[in-house]
Amino acid sequence: MSKTKQNCLLPAFCTILFYILCSGIVSVIFLHSVGQGGEGGDASSYLAKGNAYLDHGKLDLAISEFQKAVQLKPDDAKAHLGMGRAYLRKNQYDLAIEQFKEALRLKPDFAEAYGNLGNAYYCTGQYAEAINQYKKTIELKPDYAKAYLDLGTAYGQKGQYDQAIEQIKRAVELKPDYAKAHLTLGWVYGSDGQYDLAIEQFEKALRLEPGNAMAYYNLACAYSQKGRYDEAIKNVKRSLELDPEDKEARDLLTRLEKRKKLW
Prior knowledge:
Serine Threonine Protein Phosphatase 5, Tetratricopeptide repeat; 0% strand
C-alpha cells in the first residue's frame, strides 16, 4: 500500500494516520518475542513457530502454523489472535476480524485482541467501531500509550479534532519520546488549521527521528499553508533526500516552486 500524506492544498485527515495503522508495517499492540519452537506435535510449538514467522513477515507460513495450533487446541485465544494479526497484515480484514472476535469470545479480558480488532475496524473505515475497541483496550491497559494514539487517530478520521488532540496528548504524556504520536498530533493540528502548533509537533517528531521522511513532508505542508514557501521547499527536499522515490513529495516540490514564482 502506498503511503498517504497530508494534502497541502486542502487538508483532510486521511493521511499519515492511515499509513501508520494500515500499511504493511502495521503496528501491533503488545508485541511479544517467541522462540522458534520445535518441529511440531503440540499446539504451543505451532503457536511459537507461527509467531516467529509473523515476526519475520512470512504471513502465509504463520497462518498455516496458527491453524495447526487451533486444530489441536481450538480454545487457544493466542492462536486466534496470531492468525488475526497475520490476516490483518495481509489486508484480509474480514478474516482478521473473525479471528479477533473468536479470541475475545475465548478470553474476554484480552486487551491485545481488542486493540487489534480496533485496528481492523479502522482499516475498513469503521471508525466508530474502532473507537469502541480502543476504549476497551484502555480500560484494561490504562497506561498504554499506543492505545491512546490509536483512539486519537480514529477520532481524527471522524473529524472530531478536539477529542483526537486530547487522546494523543495523553499518549505523549505517557511516552514523551513517542515520535509517531508527535507526528500524528501535528497532523491533527494541521487538519484543524492550527499550523503553528502543527509545525511545533512535526519538529518534535524530527528531533526524535531525524530520518523520518514523512515528518519532513508534513512539515513542508504546514509551512506551505502559512505561505512560507522557502521553508516548505527546504523540508520537502529533505524528505526527497530520505525517500527519492516518493512521487507525492516530488509533485509537492514542483507545486511549491511554481507557487513561489507567483508569490
